[in-house]
User: Which sequence fits this backbone?
């Protein structure tokens, strides 16, 4: 019987349209190339990206409880523009007391660079976050990030592995986060408040205009 | 007249800059335009070989710059086509023998009496590249569907964007292998164009005829039957402003491929 199965598989494979065959070394090349080009174009090293990611996690976790393991930070290209896509699975939004407690406990000296962003967030009660950075500012943040806390440093390693190994989920969530940004030219996506309350995973997209 | 000065560049070596220069130049000359090819790869000249002119070179670009001869004396006419001439690179000197200003002057002089001045750029992004780009107002970036070539092309495009003199640049995708693209083992034309976000001026299929044409010192555009030759002739037409559709390279050629294709279609219908 097994011989018959083998023969059937061989024959079936022969007649299958080639696009369906799964040995796509091309997609590996495309993904690797996209990543390396983004790094080349923006001068952002993987280390700085991880720092940025760590700081964003720290900042946003003051306002929402999220699944840090599934957080994705990617670059996407739309025409001439490079967009920074942050996809965050939100578990639930924090209530006011929790947010105030988190804000009170933050260490002022270390996160001076991030505070601007926090203030903007305070004004926008609907957790609407927008980051506009020039390349120079991005570099400054990288320097400031020298003092991010030990917790996010530990996470870095785990996250890096995850990024390297788990290409499939990275792709799917990157695709998900692309669609809203294309419709919004103004680089601003607001996660609906109600949805966050119902514990469903929502995506906040932070974009970086013209890195 | 004021001709167009086009630099052919790539960043990475071995992707086909010189082959592209020789073929586009020959194709434009065949169409009746006056063309000068400048080899700026000092110390590693090869354009003379591809054109079969290696035995006719008396003076080089360095001789012109150092005023050992007049510019006209250094131009070597093509064997077949009097419209085409070559300004060869010096083989015994390096890139520091020429500077950007001198090359700009040469290009400016040559474009007075020619329709096209094509500058074959050396690999790399150093002095040789800066020299080659100096006199040009248009660029063709040659790349292949390989990661290293695409990354280098991206770098070159970034540098070209920062140059005010370069008014437009186009991508030429060389050594495309449709069978590998079909089996998802090579990036497709669309993939490359999307990644580099640069307008396309040509898709040249991998063609073993290139090897024999190089052996003979005869650009492949002279071979009416070669697919790569046709693709290069189309590039020349696009440079002239004609809208020529890109060659369909996907059509399976072999008998077995046809059967396979027929079955695939049948299956799709069922």
Assistant:
């Amino acid at each position: 019987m097994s011989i018959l199965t083998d023969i059937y598989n061989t024959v079936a494979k022969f007649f299958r349209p080639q696009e369906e065959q799964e040995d796509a070394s091309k997609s590996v090349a495309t993904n690797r190339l996209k990543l390396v080009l983004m790094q080349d174009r923006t001068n952002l090293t993987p280390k700085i990206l991880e720092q940025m990611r760590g700081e964003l996690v720290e900042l946003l976790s003051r306002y929402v409880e999220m699944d840090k393991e599934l957080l994705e930070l990617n670059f996407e290209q739309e025409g001439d523009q490079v967009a920074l896509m942050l996809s965050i699975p939100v578990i639930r939004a924090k209530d006011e007391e929790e947010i105030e407690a988190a804000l009170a406990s933050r260490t002022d000296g270390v996160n001076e660079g991030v505070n601007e962003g926090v203030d903007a967030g305070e004004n926008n009660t609907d957790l609407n976050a927008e980051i506009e950075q020039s390349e120079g500012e991005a570099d400054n943040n990288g320097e400031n990030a020298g003092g991010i806390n030990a917790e996010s440093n530990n996470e870095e390693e785990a996250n890096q592995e995850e990024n390297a190994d788990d290409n499939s989920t990275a792709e799917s969530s990157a695709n998900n986060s692309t669609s809203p940004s294309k419709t919004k030219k103004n680089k601003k996506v607001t996660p609906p408040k109600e949805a966050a309350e119902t514990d469903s995973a929502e995506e906040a997209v932070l974009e970086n205009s013209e890195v | 007249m004021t001709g167009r000065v086009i630099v052919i560049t790539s960043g990475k070596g071995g992707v086909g800059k010189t082959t592209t220069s020789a073929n586009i130049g020959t194709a434009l000359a065949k169409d009746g335009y006056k063309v000068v090819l400048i080899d700026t790869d000092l110390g590693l000249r090869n354009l003379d070989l591809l054109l079969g002119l290696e035995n006719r070179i008396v003076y080089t670009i360095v001789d012109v710059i150092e005023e050992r001869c007049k510019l006209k004396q250094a131009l070597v006419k093509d064997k077949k086509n009097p419209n085409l001439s070559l300004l060869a690179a010096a083989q015994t000197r390096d890139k520091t023998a020429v500077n950007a200003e001198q090359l700009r002057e040469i290009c400016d002089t040559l474009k007075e009496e020619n329709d096209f001045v094509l500058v074959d750029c050396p690999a790399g992004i150093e002095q040789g590249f800066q020299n080659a780009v100096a006199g040009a107002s248009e660029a063709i970036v040659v790349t292949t569907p390989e990661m290293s070539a695409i990354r280098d092309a991206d770098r070159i495009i970034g540098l070209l964007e920062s140059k005010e003199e370069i008014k437009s640049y186009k991508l030429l995708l060389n050594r495309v292998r449709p069978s590998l693209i079909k089996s998802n083992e090579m990036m497709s034309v669309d993939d490359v164009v999307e990644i580099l976000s640069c307008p396309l001026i040509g898709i040249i299929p991998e063609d073993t005829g290139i090897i024999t044409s190089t052996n003979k010192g005869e650009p492949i555009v002279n071979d009416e039957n070669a697919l790569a030759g046709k693709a290069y002739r189309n590039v020349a037409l696009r440079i002239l402003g004609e809208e020529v559709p890109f060659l369909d390279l996907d059509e399976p050629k072999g008998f077995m491929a046809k059967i396979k294709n027929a079955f695939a279609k049948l299956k799709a219908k069922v």
Observations:
- Residues 66 and 90 of chain A are 4 Å apart (CA to CA).
